[in-house]
Amino acid sequence: MEKEFTQTQHRSVADVSPVISVKHFNLWYTDFQALKDISLDIPEHRATAFIGPSGCGKSTLLRTFNRMCDFVEGVRAEGVVEFKGQDIFKTDANALRVHVGMVFQHPNPFPMSIRENILYGPARMKRLSRDEGDQIVERCLTRAALWDEVKDKLNQSGLGLSGGQQQRLCIARALATSPDVLLMDEPTSALDPISTSMVEELMVELSRDHTVVVVTHNMQQATRVADKTAFFYLGQLIEEAPTAELFSNPRETRTQEYLSGRFS
Ligand SMILES: Nc1ncnc2c1ncn2[C@@H]1O[C@H](COP(=O)(O)OP(=O)(O)OP(=O)(O)O)[C@@H](O)[C@H]1O
């Protein structure tokens, strides 16, 4: 039987430069204010978790980081979000998404081969030789801990893989443009425990040379993978701290109540 992933060795987030900086950020869906005066730094090459009850704005903030919110009609934002010191609303959104990749809750391979899934992004950035393509495919699938399972069927459809394999394929696809930041929106909520464990291990591994930001409803997952955790409630950032500190010694009453299961 596979061993459950049990990482709890958090890395320090003190004095780590932020790769994303949010300053007094507000966001409205038409008249509804979903994010209220958020200020937060995302440390580079660390894993950060967003936790909080349903509807508190975690996914909205995550989707802001690569301007996915641009696709929603009626969205209005105020305040600043910087990626590597540049205001993301003053840069080209497609260029931003090359550097800030996304993995969704439900695995969503494109209806094409495993190889084509991986090369989808890179092939749009430059013309690739067969060798270059092969190298990217092997590097990304190896990084996503999927190479050994699929190396003999790279030309088969990505849709033919199991749910857990599909999610690792989506992670490999997100890695193919060599992003600095990987956004993950409840990436294991549709997966079985073994696949969940593999993806959690991957998040920790990837956060050594990428920045990982994960939205999760699973408190144990946040403690296992994240170096820093931010707790949101009704569109506000209530508290952010190194993960061990936030879970063992929350400062705010609402954080204490949420962590002790008094509301969900
Ligand atoms: N496209 C949209 N149009 C209008 N309102 C939206 C839209 N997306 C989200 N909202 C609202 O904004 C608020 C924050 O939603 P969001 O999905 O960011 O919360 P969340 O904390 O990620 O929730 P969950 O944990 O359930 O995914 C909710 O009240 C939600 O109904």
TrEMBL record:
Pfam families: ABC_tran
Entry-linked SUPFAM superfamilies: P-loop containing nucleoside triphosphate hydrolases
Ranges of residues in domain ABC transporter: 20-259
The UniProt record lists the keyword Translocase: yes
Annotated GO MF terms: ATP binding; ATP hydrolysis activity; phosphate transmembrane transporter activity
The name this protein goes by in its record: Phosphate ABC transporter ATP-binding protein
InterPro entries on file: AAA+_ATPase, ABC_transporter-like_ATP-bd, ABC_transporter-like_CS, P-loop_NTPase, PstB-like
SMART domains: AAA
GO BP terms, alphabetized: phosphate ion transmembrane transport
A GO CC annotation given for this chain: membrane
Keywords associated with the record: ATP-binding, Nucleotide-binding, Translocase, Transport
Gene name of the encoded protein: pstB
